[in-house]
Amino acid sequence: MTLLQTDGLTKQFGGLVAVDDVSFEVDSGETRAVIGPNGAGKSTLINCITGALEPTAGTVEFDGQNITNLEPHETVQAGVSKSFQTASIFPSMSVRENVEIAALAAEHGSFQLNFLKRLSGFSAVHDTADQMLGAVDLLDSAGAEAGSLPYGDKRRLEIAIALASEPDLLLMDEPTAGMSPDETADTVDLVEALQEDLGLTILIVEHDMEIIFRIADRILVLNRGQVIADGTPEEVQQSEQVQEAYLGGVEL
């Protein structure tokens, strides 16, 4: 079943067409990847999907609903959540409080500034936070100050924050950026486990081709804002256009 679909999605910044008539779909339960050289329009595409940017033209449908003009928090409430390229956390708060904030925001859209004083009254929020911290193997660090975590664990926390809204679709923007090889391997294992254990549908932007060819069911390739390939990892690897865009024609 198609969960997410874009039709003719376009985003212009003055005379620059960053996303140019992109139509693609994400099926429920799959790991879908978006790749492309620097400046290909990957992040702009994701931002148009999440509501962070307003498309110049085209539509975004999620689970049969037109979400093209929704605000970012409304997109989250519809079932789409995003983890960012750099960890976006509250460093002076505890690991658990970071996830609880996201769970509250997803449920209510906004909250009063004194809401932390009232967290003890939200047992469902506590339960959700612990479930998501368990999913990313951070439950043992729930009481620690978020800023004290190693970099790889901060990225895990950021994924837990994205999961706190209990999304049907998780968008991941460069989840291994800045990681060591060991941290990268752990994150790839985590992505695979999230899909298997939570039944998530994942749309991932990632620069590491080896990772993408390992975890993706299908890959969308952008170059200069346009789709140049869309298919299985094997089909993408064999695409002459993809080889030319990345390596000047050298086979991937």
UniProtKB/TrEMBL annotation:
Start and end residues of each ABC transporter domain: 4-249
Coiled-coil residues: none
Protein name: Probable branched-chain amino acid transport ATP-binding protein LivG
GO cellular component: plasma membrane
Signal peptide, first to last residue: none
Biological source species: Halobaculum gomorrense
Highest rank taxon of the organism: Archaea
Keywords annotated in UniProt: Amino-acid transport, ATP-binding, Nucleotide-binding, Transport
GO biological process, one term: amino acid transport
SUPFAM superfamilies tied to this protein: P-loop containing nucleoside triphosphate hydrolases
Xref: CDD domains: ABC_Mj1267_LivG_branched (cd03219)
Alphabetized PROSITE patterns for the sequence: ABC_TRANSPORTER_2 (PS50893)
Role noted for this protein: Probable component of a branched-chain amino-acid transport system.
Family in the record: Belongs to the ABC transporter superfamily.
Pfam families (alphabetical): ABC_tran, BCA_ABC_TP_C
GO molecular function, one term: ATP binding
